[in-house]
Amino acid sequence: MVFAAERDPQALFWCVGEEGWMGAFRSYRVAYICQDCRQVVTDLRSVDASYSENALSISDLRDLVTDIEPNRKHEVDIRAARTRADGNHEYLALIEDYNRHRSHSVSLTIELSTLTGEFRMGQEEALTELTPLAWAPGFSDDQLRERLDWLLLEGRRLRREDLEREADLLPMEARA
Questions:
Q1: Span 81-89, mean pLDDT?
Q2: Which residues contact 98 (CB under 8 A, 6 or more apart)?
Q3: Looking at residue 15, what is its pLDDT?
Q4: Mean pLDDT of 114-128
Q5: Strand pairing partners for 28?
Q6: CB–CB of 43/51 below 8 Å?
Q7: For all residues of the chain together, what is the average pLDDT?
Q8: Residue 44: which of 60, 28, 68 has the closest Cα?
Q9: Residues 26, 4: contact at Cβ < 8 Å?
Q10: Each residue of 150-176: pLDDT tens digit?
């Protein structure tokens, strides 16, 4: 996956409670890499299982893999790969923040739909019910409703992006 940085000032403001002070990711796109490049990450994880599958970015792999030949395993200095992976702790923390934010926002969107649909709760009553779930460090109780509104917008945006990514993976004839 390749992540795009969040640039919207409003989104960055509301992300502060989610470690946004380091920055934040807005979205990601799927990037396909060859099996030999994927093997570099697997080899790294076999040396130390604590490394995640995102331990090396695409640009890290580009820098580390210098001798590429068809049908031959890439020669990579595993110590250099570990150094790169160890230096990516902020990058990995941002990915974790993005995944946590994404999950929370989408869950709130689904919960709102469930409350107003299945449970036939009025929109305002449902929003009042969900407002405490918008809590984050650094925000006052007075800001929770506004933050909830933003999280719900984010949840809808992120679900739309998921659908677009899924559509991109469909064969061309299935898209018509």
A1: 95
A2: 3, 24, 25, 28
A3: 83
A4: 97
A5: 3
A6: no
A7: 90
A8: 60
A9: yes
A10: 999 999 999 999 999 888 777 766 555
pLDDT digits (tens, 9 = 90+) for 14-46: 986 554 456 899 999 988 888 998 999 999 999
Distance, in Å, from the CA atom of 100 to the CA atom of 149, rounded to the nearest integer, reads: 17
Q: Of 80, 126, 97, which is closest to residue 11 (Cα–Cα)? A: 97
- 134 backbone φψ class: left, alpha, beta (φ>0; ψ -120 to 50): alpha
**Measured between alpha carbons, how far is 53 from 44 in angstroms, rounded to an integer?**
9
C-alpha span between 132 and 9 (Å, rounded): 23
Looking at residue 118, the DSSP 8-state letter turns out to be: T
Q: Among 108, 89, 113, 175, which Cα is nearest to 148's?
A: 108
The encoded tokens of residue 35 equal 């099996």
Phi-psi region of 71 (alpha: psi -120 to 50; beta: other; left: phi over 0): left
Which two tokens mark 43? 């080899």
Q: What percent of the chain has pLDDT over 70?
A: 93
